[in-house]
Every structure is written in C-alpha cells, then in structure tokens.
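Progress against Task 2.4 (sequence-to-structure conversion) is shown through the following example record, which the project officer requested during the mid-term review.
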Amino acid sequence: MSFIDDDRPQKKTAHEIGADLSMLSVDELKARVELLKTEIARLEAEAARKASGRQAAESFFRS
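Structure tokens generated for the chain above:
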C-alpha cells in the first residue's frame, strides 16, 4: 500500500508564463498581475541581497 495518494488533485499553479489568458475575467487578470508584481519584488530583493553579499566579499578580499 502506498502512502502517496496519486489521485489527489494537484495544486493549481497560480500563473504559468505563456498560459492562455482568454478565459480569465478582468478580476482574475488583475489578481495575477498583483501576484507577479509581488514575485518580481521578491526576486529583485533577493538579487540585491546576493549582490550586496558579493560586493562585501570582494571588498574584503581586496584589502
């Protein structure tokens, strides 16, 4: 007996790049835009954090 239930519905992806948007309502489209804006901000913050750490390491080893 398997403990993994393969018949469970898979979690629906909130947004997939390139997905067909024609069946979505205006409210659904706006919700996806907000979701993507939040994700972009998260990605930019992580990139900035990593760049800052790299700059600190580079300046440490230059000294």
